[in-house]
C-alpha cells in the first residue's frame, strides 16, 4: 500500500469517526449526559485537526492524537454511561489495529508508535473505567432497552473497524 492510498483511507476513517461523534452527541443529548455533550465539542475539533494533519502527511501525529482521544473518550463515556452501553469495546478494537498501524509505518519508513506500550496503556484504561463503573455505577442512568440497543450499535462499529483493518 502506498502513501497516497493510506492518506485516502485515513481521510475516509477520519470522516466516519467525525460522523459518529456527531451522532453520539445527539445520543448524549437524548440521555441528558451533559458532561458528554460538552466533551463532544473538543472531540469534534480533534477530528477537524485530523484532516489538517492528514493533508500535511503527519500521519504519525494523527495516529497518536486519535488513539489518545479515543481512549480518553471511551473512558469518559464508560464512567458516565456505564459499561452496558459498550464504549469500552472500542479498546478491544484499538489494540490489534495499532499493531497494524505500527507495521505500516515501518514499511513506509515513517515514525512508529510503540504498539506494546500503547496497548498496555489502553488495556489499563479499559480495566480502570470498566472496573470503577462496575463498582460505583455510572454517572448517568440509561434505560436498559436503550443500553442494549446501543451496546449492539457499538459492537457493530467495533467489529466493522476490525474487519476493515
Chain-wise SSE layout:
Layout: H1 3-30, H2 34-55, H3 59-81, H4 89-108, H5 115-136, H6 144-164
Sum this structure up briefly:
The protein is an all-alpha fold and 165 residues long.
Q: Span between N and C termini?
A: 13 Å
Number of helices: 6
Which structural category fits the helices and strands? mainly alpha
Global Rg: 16 Å
User: Would you identify the regions where 5 or more consecutive residues have pLDDT less than 50?
Assistant: none
Biggest pleated-sheet summary: none
**Structural domains: how many:** 1
User: Which sequence of SSEs, written as H and E, runs from N to C?
Assistant: HHHHHH
Average pLDDT figure: 90
Characterization of this structure:
The protein has 165 residues and is mainly alpha-helical. The protein has six helices and no strands. The two termini are 13 Å apart.
Features:
mainly alpha, 165 residues
